[in-house]
Amino acid sequence: MGRSPCCDKVGLKKGPWTPEEDQKLLAYIEEHGHGSWRALPAKAGLQRCGKSCRLRWTNYLRPDIKRGKFSLQEEQTIIQLHALLGNRWSAIATHLPKRTDNEIKNYWNTHLKKRLAKMGIDPVTHKPKNDALLSSDGQSKNAANLSHMAQWESARLEAEARLVRESKLRSHNNNNNNAFPLANPPGYASSSSVVSSAGRNNSMDPLKAHWNNNSNNCSNNNNGGGHLESPTSTLTFSETNAVQPPPPPMPSMIEFVGSSGLHHQHDLSMEGTSWTSPESFRTTSANNVMIEEGFTNLLLNNSDDHHRSLSDNSDNGGGGGDGSGSGSAAGSDDHYYEDNKNYWNSILNLVNSSPPDSPMF
DNA sequence: AACCAAGGCAACCGCGTATTA
DNA sequence: ATAATACGCGGTTGCCTTGGT
């Protein structure tokens, strides 16, 4: 409840770190691990608050940080995850293992956001700004659903985090020999990866496997209507050896609706997948992300002609501006579905390539 | 060469939440 | 059950650099 007074103390230094301070912090952590951040500055002989030390370490001194320009792949990852998760920088950062959440946040704010905006895409919703045009055919509803998905995902992340913590606790009890965080590949644990290390194998991988299975099933497609379970529903709870988690914060009932939905006649990666919220919210996730993927790719492959799905859609007016295929109506459904499939494939690729300790999957 | 504006990044601030007493 | 403490996260700020005039 109360707030930490650590930074209010007088006599503590603020502002840029000097090389000497860096050296002290580095030396101390390498020898002892960070332990309690609050206690660290005194022990390390630093006139800084613990918070400042933690920040300096996680954003700059950690040895596993990659600096410099973001690759195209990294940009793509950021944009796609941002479309899904919003400003959840730490979660996004877990999929870019050598980047810090702060760096990603800065990069988003200074580069990607502007680039999106310049192309007429709302960086918050990842939709074309003149999306009003879409509302008539129900796509704005889909956008709203996407946001709903993001909230849902948020709740899921929280549940996972709790799960992991508990598993970690249990694991710690089983083998209480890990004195310092540094003892294990420190990742020195980026703030988020710390959480995940221990409990993960028990609790998270099945989730991932399940997710992957679903994706495989889906890509084999044809048989529309598989009854897909969401990652969360899997998390909820088929796990046997993990600590039984408390109910996730949001949903008193998260369930997946089968393919009885609207889109089962199409060949989709996530065909037949619907998300049901406590309010019995029901929709297909397909079109939700389809739009943004189109624009994401447009953004990344701006001049790339192999981005077929959009360029084919020539009557869109091409550019990010009005694009969105608005009309799309009947004729371009196929493009949408193709886009959608690509989108989910890329997300699934992310899942597949994500570090095993990612709290996200 | 000097000034100014914009961009980029490191660091700080404050809030939410988990943990502990 | 409650309050205090500690940590992590996201938003914001401020300084430094770069580019333009």
TrEMBL record:
Residues in HTH myb-type domain copies: 9-61, 62-116
InterPro entries registered for this protein in UniProt: Homeodomain-like_sf, Myb_dom, Myb_TF_plants, SANT/Myb
Biased composition annotated in UniProt, kind: Gly residues: 316-328
Compositional bias (Polar residues): 230-243
SUPFAM superfamilies: Homeodomain-like
PROSITE patterns hit by this protein: HTH_MYB (PS51294), MYB_LIKE (PS50090)
Region span, Disordered: 171-201, 214-257, 302-335
Compartments, as annotated in UniProt: Nucleus
UniProt domain Myb-like: residue ranges: 9-61, 62-112
Gene3D superfamilies registered for this protein in UniProt: Homeodomain-like
Pfam families: Myb_DNA-binding
Main location: nucleus
Keywords linked to the UniProt accession: DNA-binding, Nucleus
Protein name: Transcription factor MYB16 isoform X3
Organism, scientific name: Ziziphus jujuba
